[in-house]
Design brief:
206 residues; alpha+beta; Alpha-Beta Plaits; Double Stranded RNA Binding Domain; 2 domains; 7-stranded mixed sheet; 10 strands; Pep_chain_release_fac_I_sf; PrfH
């Protein structure tokens, strides 16, 4: 079964050396994905002078999720800085994390209408006719009820408009939640227990 995963490669708040390493990590992921028979490409990236601040890679193919498990975590580069020769630090870190898929309500699909007796104020017409309409979007279960129009047809049209507005709101909310998670991931980096350690310049993975 074809799978699709999104990987975030981030130097977090790391210095230029981490950004240099982040570019190498992206290149490594693209190469290893191709070797595994997977399709991988940049979905987004924030380049900088020395490398990449962060990037999102989309990986597709059978076994993409399993491959991603081997890549996610912190990557460590052990090397004296090639950019600041007198700098004492020699450990640099980059994070690779799996981005959650935004669960967006499907705006397509069937809408079921149920008629019912209108309730509340409105005179004899409202109380004695089945002009009220409840519309249910079957893929998501989202529902609205409209009874303020005098005809069933008018209530159906209004219900469809309200349902579309409600689904659009839910999609925006889901996307905002996913965007906030991605933003947090860009600034978080666990430096312990790296999943991959690279040495020297040029990079050599061990």
């Amino acid at each position: 079964m074809t799978e699709t995963v999104s990987l975030l490669v981030s130097a977090a708040q790391g210095p230029a050396e981490c950004r240099l390493f982040a570019r190498f990590v992206c290149q490594t992921l693209l190469r290893e994905a191709a070797q595994a028979g997977l399709s991988a490409e940049y979905a987004d990236q924030t380049p900088c002078r020395h490398g990449i601040l962060s990037a999102v890679l989309t990986v597709r193919g059978t076994g993409a999720a399993r491959a991603a498990q081997n890549w996610t975590g912190s990557w460590q580069w052990v090397c004296r800085s090639p950019l600041r020769l007198q700098h004492p630090r020699k450990n640099w870190f980059v994070g690779v994390s799996l981005l959650p898929e935004a669960v967006l309500p499907d705006t397509a699909g069937e809408v079921r209408f149920h008629t019912c007796r209108a309730s509340g104020n409105g005179g004899q017409h409202v109380n004695k006719t089945d002009s009220a309409v409840r519309a249910v979007h079957t893929p998501t279960g989202v529902a609205v009820k409209v009874q303020n129009r005098r005809s069933q047809h008018a209530n159906k049209q209004q219900a469809k408009r309200l349902l579309a507005d409600k689904l659009a709101h839910l999609r925006r909310h889901a996307q905002q939640q996913a965007d906030r998670h991605t933003h947090r991931q860009r600034h978080q980096l666990e430096r312990g227990n790296p999943v991959r350690v690279c040495y020297g310049n040029p990079f050599t993975a061990k």
